[in-house]
Amino acid sequence: MRDELFILAFDHRGSFKSKMFGISGREASAEEQAALSDAKRLVYEGALKAVDDGLSPDIVGVLVDEEMGADVARDAKQRGIKLAMPVESSGQPLFDFEYGDEFGDHIERFDPEFSKVLVRWNPDDAPEDNRVQGERLKRLGDWLHDKGRTYLFELLVPPTAQQLALVGSAADYDSEARPYLTLQAIRQILEAGVEPDIWKIEGLDRRRNCELLSDLIKSGGRDDVIAVVLGRGADDAKVDHWLRMGSGVPGYAGFAIGRSIWWAGVEGYKDGTMSRAEAVESISSNYRRFIDVYQGR
Question: Is pTM beyond 0.90 here?
Answer without folding.
Answer: yes
